[in-house]
Amino acid sequence: MTGNIPVLYARGKSLAEAWENSMIELYKNGTQFRTEYDKEGDPLSIDSTMIIVIEEPLSEPRIHRCFPGGLDALEEYRQEVLDGIKDTWIRDRNNPEDTRWEYTYHERLFNYKFFNQSGKEQSINQIDYVIQKLSEKPFTRRAQAITWKVWEDIDISDPACMQSLWFRILPDENNNWYLNLNVRFRSNDAYDAAFMNMFALTALQERIANQLAKKSNKNILVGRYCHIADSYHIYGSRIEDFKSRFLKSLNTRSFEERTWTTEMAQPFFDEAKPIIEKKIKEQEEKY
């Protein structure tokens, strides 16, 4: 064991393949770390800096069956990031007794609040900015959205893990334009969260590509997705579950048996939607 955190790399054609390869690489070549969330007796986590490339984010099979969470949870998280269904769960910072969430990714991306030079609070839709900027100058290096608020996040208990989205467009020889996306996480739970993160963010990439195509009158397709995590980790308390679920599946099932296509999963997504809607409504009434 050296004093250097390993920098690991994984890629795959589809989301399911890339995530699976990243988990194999992390388990084989990651290092051991303590975390701020360890309980007494927990094993050390497995950790690394990780770069994951999904070559064709919308290709099938897209969904890995070994991520810890059902398809209903995956659909709920997609709606949370893309549609902001939980933005009303964010607490009032002027009320010290309000114990709701500190933020959502949707709120930080679509309604980023800040104080201007006059001390008044303003907000900006960073995704609208990205679409506008790329429609005007598709070669720009400035099409990014951030989540970190240094004046808030250094003092809260659960600061934003995802830090930034960076977009760029590149044409091919047939004049098809591809929207590429780089995402950076400061901390990313590889086993329990990363697949859901990438599923939602590639869906956001697709949505932005479609909106950009309408605005620019160009044929905009979804290009490669690059996921960069400063700390890509499996918590020590979750390693046994990882072995019994993920590693066992590698040895007993084919890749096709370890994955679902979107078409296979869609009926479960559709079935979950009214249940999710009811859950959100009940929680809002509680708040």
Report on the architecture of this protein:
By secondary structure, the protein is an alpha/beta fold. The protein has a single domain (56-230, 252-286), classed as Thymidylate Synthase, Chain A. Helices cover 39% and strands 24% of the residues. The chain has 8 helices and 12 strands. It has helices at 15-29, 71-83, 105-110, 126-136, 150-153, 194-216, 239-252, 262-286; strands at 7-12, 31-33, 45-54, 63-64, 112-115, 121-124, 144-146, 162-171, 177-185, 188-189, 220-234, 259-260. Strands 1, 2, 3, 7, 8, 9, 10 and 11 form an 8-stranded mixed β-sheet that branches. The longest helix has 25 residues, at 262-286. The protein starts with 6 loop residues before the first strand and ends with a helix. The mean pLDDT is 94.
Give short descriptive properties of this protein.
12 strands, Thymidylate Synthase, Chain A, 8 helices, two-stranded antiparallel sheet
Number of domains: 1
Total strands: the figure is 12
CATH level 4 superfamily: Thymidylate synthase/dCMP hydroxymethylase domain
Q: How many strands, which pairing sense, and closed or not: the largest β-sheet?
A: 8 strands, mixed
**Radius of gyration in whole Å, from Cα?**
20 Å
Task: Supply the number of helical segments.
Answer: 8
User: What's the overall geometry?
Assistant: globular
**CATH architect. name:** 2-Layer Sandwich
Structural class: alpha/beta
Roughly what fraction of the amino acids lie in strands? Answer: 15-25%
Quick check: average pLDDT? 94
CATH class: Alpha Beta
Low-confidence stretches: none
First-residue to last-residue Cα separation: 48 Å
Question: Could you state the order of secondary-structure elements as H and E?
Answer: EHEEEHHEEHEHEEEHEHEH
